[in-house]
Amino acid sequence: MVNRVTVIFFVYLCAVHQVYSAILTNIRSEAGVSSLLKIRKEYYMVDFDDDNVLTHHNCHRYIRIDDINGDGDITYEEVEANPDTPRFPMEVFLAWDANNDGVLNDIDVNAVFEMVPGTGNIVDLQEFLTIYSSRMNETTGPVMKIQSFVQAERDFLIIDENDDNILTREEFKLEFRLADKNKNGNLEETEVRHMFPMRSTPPENICPNISVSCSVDDVILLFDAADKNQDSQLSVDEYIQHFGNLIQN
After folding, report:
1. Are residues 121 and 17 in the same domain?
2. Based on the structure, what is the number of domains in the chain?
């Protein structure tokens, strides 16, 4: 008689293989920025211990919060019915549902980590964005490279001196003054890179007049171009949507 555990394990492997075959044929290096912003929000909701990486424990805990009937399978109806957890769009739920069976469970979580190179014990933001945007049939918003998206977020976090997830004009001006090493009131090409330290971006994309000068007024024009709602401050979403497109990888 075939061991029951062996059969269950074989079925699990078949399910996982089916999942990976579907995902690996459609790995995205770029996606619609609106979808990427939604996935990013989901990433930080899952990262409940705020260490900027996801573990198996993070993901299992996150989806089990919505397991209202305790059967180990989470349906979208359970997600919608739980008043104690934030709602997330159906498209995100479907992206989590790696084997397309209409429920979220341990197989879906394990599929995430099997996709990650190396030990497969943690998932970072870029890996998470890549996996879940690849699981979507289509993404929304202007297309952006995922690597550029992540670099833009890192830039924002560096410039956001008080860690309030908002950039003000004063913070932007402060970055200008810090980058202006020779204190001549203008940024040279190398100094522009000090202002945007994580960016692999041609300085002329940051300051069109770099061959002549790059003054604080030029930098504020860049700020204003990103400030879509004209409230004199930049959210992380505004920053990524504008500056991510300036990055060249």
Report:
1. yes
2. 2
Structure tokens at 80: 């919608």
**What is the predicted pLDDT for the residue at 87?**
65
- Check if the beta carbon of residue 242 is closer than 8 Å to that of residue 226: yes
| SS3 label, residue 30 | strand
Its domain, for residue 51, covers 4-141
Residue 205's nearest CA partner among 214, 175, 217 is 214
Claim to verify: residue 136 and residue 163 sit in the same structural domain:
no
CB 43 within 8 A of CB 236: no
pLDDT greater at residue 161 or residue 167: 167
Whichever domain contains 209, its CATH number is 1.10.238.10
pTM of the model as a whole: 0.79
Report pLDDT for 93: 84
Judgement on whether residues 182 and 214 belong to the same structural domain of the protein: yes
Domain stops at, among 106, 121, 141: 141
pLDDT of residue 6: 41
Per-position DSSP letters for 131-181, written without gaps between them: HHHHHSS---SSEEEHHHHHHHHHHHHHH-TT-SSEEEHHHHHHHHHHH-T
- Indicate the pLDDT class of residue 12, thresholds 50, 70 and 90: very low
